[in-house]
What we know:
Layout (H helix, E strand, L loop, with lengths): L6 E3 L6 E3 L9 H25 L6 H21 L9 H23 L6 H34 L2
Antiparallel strand pairs: 1-2
Amino acid sequence: MSYYPGAMADSSGDREVEIFRSPMDYSVGVTASIFGLDAVLVVIFAALGNRSHQTGLAPVDIVSTAWPFLVGLVAAWWLSFTWKHPLNLWPCGVFTVLVTVAVGMMLRYFLTDGGVQLSFIGVATGTLLVFLLGSRLLLLGLVRARRRSRVTP
Length: 153
């Protein structure tokens, strides 16, 4: 039996029964919305960092902090096939966070004057784990609740 969120064996254990859509069933609009939410969360991460370090909250300041991580997010979605499985926590969600941080840090180091201290790498990883995986957990809960309400008369 293959595993993806929502798959389970029926009472005989011989075949899978879906309790909500498989990852391949998400429409382009839903997938784009989830990517858009990820991008907004990366921008919020950058704004929070700018605020805590008092480096400016003007749009240009936030964009200059966020762009390496947004490029990392695009790379992560492409490399991990997150666009096919946008709500999977493992491996897509975790890989998305790790690649977003890794690419973001490399771009900051080589192309900006931003720092890449070990403490920042830890904070960035932790914050993006909470933001990106937390949003997926919430969305999965909403999907499950919606599916249950459709099944239950």
